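Table 4 source record.
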Amino acid sequence: KAVVSTQSTGKVEGKPIMVILHKTWCGACKRLKPVVANSHEILQLSREFVMVNAEDDEAPAENAEFSIDGGYIPRIIFLDSDGNIRPEYTNVARGEKYKYFYPSVDEITRSMNNVLQGVAIKTEL
C-alpha cells in the first residue's frame, strides 16, 4: 500500500525511490534502524529520493518483484521514478549472496550515490 502510493510520488517528483523492507521482530532490522536514523550522510542523500520505510505488513509481500534475491530482511531496494524496481543497484560489498542487505552507512550511501549517478545519466540521454 505504502509502496504503491510512493511510486506515484516518485513519478510526480521525478525522484528515485529507496525502499527499506524490515520487520519489528528482526534483530538485524533493529540494528539497521539507528544506522540509518543517525547518519547525516544518509539524511543528506535522502533528500534526492522518495523514501519508503516498509515495516511488517506494509512490505509488498504479495508483489513477487520485491522478493528479488529471496525474502531475507532487512533489504533495501531501489526503484526508478516511474516505480520500476532497479535490481542492478545492489550492495556490491556483499557479492552474490544477500546483495540487498546493507549493514553500514558506507554501503548504503555507495548504492544511493550509484542510483543518483544512474538517474543523472538517464536524464542526460
